[in-house]
């Protein structure tokens, strides 16, 4: 499939899940919005779960590059800031929160791929930090990411509070400087 | 309403949301399972969102007492351990994950009350720690809770990985001892 057409299908998928939730997402609805035949979609993705899973990982809308600012602190602040924007700034936040919320109830929608894909890129932040002598080799990168990204989810989604402009700096400082 | 009857209604509500999801939860279904008339439920809670919101905060199943172990480290480890059990040990975890996942898509189901109620109790952990000289007065208790509880959610729910037995100790150590 042409990459542009694929992105249009992912785009339609993510917008539909944001508007109607996972239960309201249908391959027919995606096909109609993207202007393709639904058999075309089924040829590539066997189910709506597979389609949404692929869209989460491969859509340009949720594309993710790990920051590379030159310092561990700078990289982590940029990472948290990116998660904060992802979860609070529409229309991306409607998409991300709806799709990740749906993944909780629908294990067949494999959100683990989304997080595993991001983590594979985030690893480089920690490799560089170890290389620069800013981080012990024994540090646990996944724990650090989970503490920081989880805090944004708790604050913005579960508490329904808007993380302030200094949230990223303060969260990273709690980890790097201690509480 | 008699407290025991109220707990039966909350219990039926939480079990139904775990089994059928929020969309499958109905006041009729709860009434049937709890053996009460649905008008009785509507007299106390005007909607299924209000009923589930009340169940989240008031059910004995999700009852929460902030730990008081005598040290900040001990309290935080116990706190994280409690969240880990809540999110990973059935049947409680089915209930908690389904209800909190539903809250993401249904703001009318006010999960903020659940977190605000818990946080009001968790505050005492930090007040005692400041009193014992273990924590600066300027420390931000909500940030600490969000980092720790969010990490469990990320690991157990989004990544679908089982946090190990030492997860609580390591997460708290990352915050108290630095990374």
From TrEMBL, chains A, B:
It comes from the Bacteria. Gene3D superfamilies: Homeodomain-like, Tetracycline Repressor, domain 2. Residues 3-63 form the HTH tetR-type domain. This is TetR family transcriptional regulator. The keyword Transcription regulation applies. Residues 26-45 bind DNA. Transmembrane segments: none annotated. PANTHER family: HTH-TYPE TRANSCRIPTIONAL REGULATOR RUTR, TETR-FAMILY TRANSCRIPTIONAL REGULATOR. Keywords: DNA-binding, Transcription, Transcription regulation. The lineage of its organism: Bacteria, Bacillati, Actinomycetota, Actinomycetes, Streptosporangiales. The keyword Transcription applies. One of its GO terms (molecular function) is transcription cis-regulatory region binding.
């Amino acid at each position: 499939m042409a990459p542009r057409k694929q992105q249009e299908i992912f785009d339609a998928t993510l917008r539909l899940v944001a508007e109607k939730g996972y239960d309201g997402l249908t391959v027919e609805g995606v096909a109609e919005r993207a202007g393709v035949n639904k058999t075309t979609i089924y040829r590539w993705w066997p189910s709506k779960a597979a389609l949404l899973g692929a869209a989460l990982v491969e859509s340009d809308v949720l594309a993710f590059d790990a920051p590379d600012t030159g310092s561990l602190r700078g990289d982590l602040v940029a990472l948290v800031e990116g998660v904060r924007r992802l979860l609070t700034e529409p229309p991306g936040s409607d998409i991300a929160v709806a799709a990740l919320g749906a993944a909780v109830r629908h294990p067949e929608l494999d959100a683990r791929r989304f997080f595993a894909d991001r983590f594979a890129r985030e690893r480089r932040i920690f490799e560089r930090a170890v290389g620069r002598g800013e981080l012990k080799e024994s540090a646990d990168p996944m724990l650090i990411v989970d503490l920081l990204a989880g805090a944004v989810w708790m604050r913005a989604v579960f508490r329904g509070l808007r993380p302030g402009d200094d949230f990223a700096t303060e969260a990273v400082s709690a980890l790097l400087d201690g509480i």
